[in-house]
Specification:
Bound molecules: adenosine monophosphate, zinc ion, fe (iii) ion
Structural class: alpha/beta
CATH topology of the largest domain: TIM Barrel
Helix content: 40-55%
Radius of gyration: 18 Å
Largest sheet: 8 strands, mixed
CATH class of the largest domain: Alpha Beta
Length: 280
């Protein structure tokens, strides 16, 4: 059993359609794949139809943009009701925050002699429900300002970089509550990548566990081997489910983020799906 619990389609900042992603997951030999677009469930129906067609188990998920003490934290949610009103309202707020920062971001690029219009970015984001910096990066590539997304992020768009603009994220504790109350389970994505380690301490993870957090993503390309070992030990101590995943974005991220690059053990998936959904 090969299980990949974190991937992105072009409904957010991946480059494959949901159906293409599912087909590629089957071709890559995966038995279970989760679609976890940023802040949107827009790809679920198309992905489910493709999964039924090619014979792979789809887990319907999301990666929610949250904030904790001024640090961005990504929360994976699985199996919740996509029509749940309080959750939808919060996702709408996040999606609006993504769009609202665009004028300021483009103004900062213009100051650096890289003028782009909102339409240039929309031409790249296509039918994505969640716009993001990767689409701005694609517009920069199309205009000939940079060679690829990587260069755009490395020189301009990185956190606190020259063209960076903060955006709204749901308070982390509130997001865990919303997923639980919508009948789903949540897993902190790449908790100790970038600045996550500053805020996601053992104490905080323990508090989240008490609130219903089901697991932590341990095996992720942005975690080094020693970080994975330490986080795995903490997860076992806290009785949190250990997941592993690719964070695949199609051609939007390097080849090391290929489908199945990291996987989740079948018994861990079973524990995740068995988690009591309320007050776990
Ligand atoms: P945003 O959602 O607008 O805050 O942009 C963050 C997104 O950009 C995340 O989904 C990352 O996966 C993606 N990202 C971050 N760094 C890079 C990079 N160097 N190349 C491509 N995508 C990146
Ligand atoms: Zn992404
Ligand atoms: Fe993420
Ligand atoms: Fe992701």
């Amino acid at each position: 059993m090969r299980i990949d619990l974190h991937t992105h389609s072009n409904r957010s900042d991946g480059t494959d359609s949901p159906a293409e992603l599912v087909e590629k997951a089957r071709a890559a030999g995966l038995d279970v794949v989760a679609l976890t677009d940023h802040d949107s469930t827009a790809g679920w129906d198309e992905a489910q139809a493709a999964a039924d067609r090619v014979g792979i188990t789809l887990l319907r998920g999301i990666e929610i943009s949250t904030m904790l003490d001024g640090v961005s934290v990504h929360l994976l949610g699985y199996g919740f009701d996509p029509e749940d009103a309080p959750l939808l309202a919060e996702l709408d707020r996040i999606l609006r925050g993504r769009d609202d920062r665009l004028p300021q971001l483009l103004a900062q690029l213009a100051e650096h002699d890289m003028p782009l219009t909102q339409d240039d970015v929309i031409a790249q984001s296509g039918n994505a429900a969640a716009s993001g910096r990767p689409h701005v990066a694609d517009a920069m590539v199309a205009a000939g300002y940079v060679a690829d997304r990587d260069e755009a992020f490395r020189d301009w768009l990185y956190d606190d970089g020259p063209a960076y603009v903060e955006r709204y994220g749901a308070p982390l504790l509130e997001a865990v509550d919303l997923v639980r109350e919508a009948g789903g389970v949540s897993v902190v994505a790449h908790p100790w990548a970038r600045r996550g380690r500053q805020v996601l301490t053992a104490e905080l993870l323990s508090e989240l566990r008490a609130r219903g957090l089901a697991g932590v993503e341990v095996d992720h390309n942005n975690h080094s081997a020693p970080v994975r070992a330490e986080l795995r030990e903490l997860a076992v101590d806290l009785d949190l489910v250990v997941t592993g995943s690719s964070d695949y974005h199609g051609t939007g991220k390097g080849p090391e983020f290929h489908l199945g690059a990291n996987t989740t053990a079948p018994e861990e998936l079973e524990r995740l799906l068995d988690r009591p959904r309320f007050g776990a």
